[in-house]
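Table S2 (text version). Query chain:
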Amino acid sequence: MALFDREYYRDETPPPRLRPADRMMVTNLVILNVAIYVVDIFLGRQHWLMASLSLSSADFASPWLWWRFLTYGFAHMPYPMLEHIFWNMLGLWMFGRDVELLYGRRELLTFYLVTIVFGSLVWASIAPPSRPGRADPETSR
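Corresponding structure-token output:
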């Protein structure tokens, strides 16, 4: 009798899976990010959507702009820099699926949004100050 044939050693329960009707949260996040990117491409060469979603170090001192601490996570370098959004979404897809299967949809979304806000707070606190009303050169490319 082999070790895995013993009844007390076998794990008969299947691994937790999402129902086929449910779309993974990672898929929703990738679709949302790509949709925002595509809309920005079709709105013109000024990329005003990405500029309004992007974060500036001056936003830290402007409470009416604190919504940018979340939205900057959905702003990517404008077209034709396709590799920026490609590698971001590939990394999200590769690692996010495992995290979602391990912890669940809600926890993944919470983790994603909290890390966006935490990253923006860290960046805004250590970035060189910019003049209010002007975007940083790094975020406006």
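Notes on Table S2: Residues 133-141 have pLDDT under 50 and may be disordered. The first helix runs from residue 25 to 42.
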